Amino acid sequence: MSFNGSWNIVMKTPMGDREAVLTLAQEGDALTGTMVADGNSLDVQDGKVEDGRAKWKADLTQPMPITLEFDVGEEGGNLDGTVKLGMFGSSGVSGTPA
User: Fold this and answer.
1) 74-97 pLDDT per residue, tens
2) Burial class (CB in 10 A: 0-12, 13-18, 19+), 55
């Protein structure tokens, strides 16, 4: 599975669904990219592919500073997994090709 490409992702957060466009570039086990939501762009940090899953972090500054930690796999051409929301626990995240 390659995680290359653009994805429309939805994060199920305590404050409701949050949508973003995720663009990933996979080279071997390395993963880079950006997430764009609400006019803000976040860089994919510490991105890697491990055991068929994509894992990365993104530092959010608005509405409050928090590091999001993603762990997603591919199922039927779509993304499915979890995102850690700092002190707010974990939530589901899903994505479809953009």
Assistant:
1) 989 999 999 999 888 899 999 999
2) middle
Q: Can you give the pTM of this predicted structure? A: 0.92
- The residues near 56 (Cβ < 8 Å, ≥ 6 apart) are 31, 33, 44, 45, 46, 47, 48, 69, 70
CA–CA dist 43, 32 (Å, integer): 8
Domains along the sequence of the chain with CATH: 5-97 (2.40.128.120)
Strand partners, 23: 6, 34
Residues of the chain with pLDDT under 50: none
Q: Residue 98: which of 52, 37, 15 has the closest Cα?
A: 37
- For 1-98, where are the E strands, in sequence order? 5-13, 16-27, 30-37, 40-43, 45-50, 53-60, 66-75, 78-85, 90-97
